[in-house]
Design a protein that fits this description.
Elements (H helix, E strand, L loop, with lengths): L1 H7 L7 E3 L1 H8 L4 H10 L3 E4 H7 L7 H8 L3 E3 L3 H14 L9 H13 L2 E4 L2 H5 L8 E3 L1
Parallel strand pairs: 1-2, 1-4, 2-3, 4-5
Helix pairs in contact: 2-4, 6-7
């Protein structure tokens, strides 16, 4: 399955990954400096389709988020193959068996780890539970 990932996401180019909390921060007018710098440096901006679903509400409220998407942020869909990859990742790296896994957090962590990108999140502990090193996590 690693070949499919290479086609889906250019893993050779680190950038930034945004979780749902970061997307909500964007809607609130925060992280503008981070996004501007990423665009100026040509860094890829990636997010899970699940994170987009958690944050998107449409209309004027989502105008800032729509602008980020329009500028070329890559939304990685949770289709059949990607869903299987995330499920296998949860089985290998997920939180303790007593904790209920979060598919969107796992997908965000997987994208972060594979691309060696910084991740902007409101749930640092959740991403760390999926093996994202603290040095890659930026709190929103």
């Amino acid at each position: 399955m690693a070949r499919r990932v290479a086609k889906l996401v250019d893993v050779s180019r680190p950038g930034i990954v945004l979780d749902a909390g970061a997307l909500l921060s964007i809607e609130a007018g925060r992280l503008t400096d981070v996004l501007a710098e990423a665009h100026a440096l040509g860094l890829p901006i990636r997010l899970s389709g699940g994170a987009l679903a958690q944050a998107w509400r449409g209309g004027p409220r989502s105008a800032r988020l729509a602008a980020v998407l329009k500028k070329g942020a890559s939304v990685i869909a949770l289709d059949s193959l990607e869903g299987r990859r995330v499920g296998e990742f949860i089985a290998r790296r997920g939180p303790s068996r007593r904790a209920k896994p979060d598919v969107v957090d796992a997908h965000t962590a997987l994208l972060t780890r594979e691309t060696r990108s910084l991740v902007y999140t409101s749930d640092a502990e959740d991403l760390a539970s999926y093996g994202v090193a603290e040095k890659w996590i930026r709190k929103t």
